[in-house]
Amino acid sequence: MAAPQSPLPDTIRSYSDRHLDPAQAAAYRVKFQRSFTRRISTARETRLVASAFRLALREVHQPAVVLDYPCGAGRFATLFAKPCTGYLAGDHSPHMIAITSEVLQAADMGEKLIGTTEGDARRMNLEDDAVDLAASMRLLHHFPDQEDRLAILGELRRVTKGPLVTSFLDASSTKQRSHLRRCKKRGKASRRVLLTPEQFAAEADRAGWQVSRTWKLSSLFSGQCVALLLPHG
Predict the structure, then answer these.
(1) Residue 231 to residues 77, 141, 157: CA-CA distances in angstroms?
(2) What end-to-end distance do the CA atoms of the chain give, in Å?
(3) b/e map 20-40, b = 16+ CB within 10 Å
(4) I need a labelling partner for 22 at 20 to 30 A (CA). Which of 38, 90, 177, 219 fits?
(5) What is the per-residue pLDDT for 50?
(6) What structural domains and CATH numbers belong to the chain?
(7) Cis link prior to 144 (omega < 30° from 0)?
(8) Among 173, 174, 230, which Cα is nearest to 205's?
(9) Dihedral Cα 77, 15, 192, 90, nearest 10 deg
(10) From the CB of residue 73, how many other CB atoms can be counted at a distance below 10 Å?
(11) Contact at 8 Å (CB) between 207 and 157?
């Protein structure tokens, strides 16, 4: 077992404190179902994530333990847990982890939850090669500092023996280019971290990953991309 990591320096803050509030965490549970367009987008994203995860499982070639970090409100928890022998939920919010546990229990998959890990994704309190594969959805675009993104990808590489399913916001997509133009017109900086596929691949490479395949949710209406990463070597 690896030694527990020391606390992060004060200069490295959590990307979002609002989900440390139980009410805000509960509100996030229904965020992606609040409108018809969000439900349609969520359904398509789920299909893309499922496709990426099926390919990831083929790389493992054995009964697998998966890490879902951040697990959020369990949006993909059953998708990841069902084909695996064990599911490990990780998040910076204990309330999100509790909600994910409830989601699995409601789906009669409570026995799949073999553990939880709470903390910052830039410094995970997990041992090396702790899991067979991992998923990290809708996280990287919250971190404007490249070193933070590299730290997250590097930690996922350290604790994962096999592939990673993750996501990024495509800077070259129509939706995100329009977003940047609106921000510029209003004189406001964008809070989204946008990367071209080439930039994302370069960062993944620096962290020990190679991009196997990417899927676009919608260039026109989203810019969200799902990516399957394989470890170097």
Answers:
(1) 23, 21, 7
(2) 24
(3) eeeeebeebbeebeeeeeeee
(4) 38
(5) 97
(6) 18-231 (3.40.50.150)
(7) no
(8) 230
(9) -10
(10) 25
(11) yes
pLDDT tens per residue across span 181-222: 666 677 776 667 889 999 999 999 999 999 999 998 865 455
Kind of pairing between the strands at 224-231 and 164-170: antiparallel
How far is 225 from 170, CA to CA, in rounded Å?
7
Distance of alpha carbon 217 from alpha carbon 202, whole angstroms = 21
Helix boundaries (H) for the chain? 22-28, 36-60, 77-81, 94-106, 146-159, 174-186, 197-206
Residues 39, 212: contact at Cβ < 8 Å?
Answer: no
Cα 134 from Cα 149, distance rounded (Å): 16
Type of residue found at 201: A
pLDDT digits (tens, 9 = 90+) for 91-123: 999 999 999 999 999 999 999 999 999 999 999
Q: How far apart are CA 164 and CA 68, in angstroms?
A: 10
The 10 Å Cβ neighbour count of residue 88 is: 24
201/54 Cα distance (integer angstroms):
21
Distance in angstroms (rounded) separating the CA atoms of residues 162 and 160: 6
Please name the amino acid found at residue 227.
A
**19: its two tokens:** 């989900």
Residue 41 to residue 47: CA distance in whole angstroms: 10
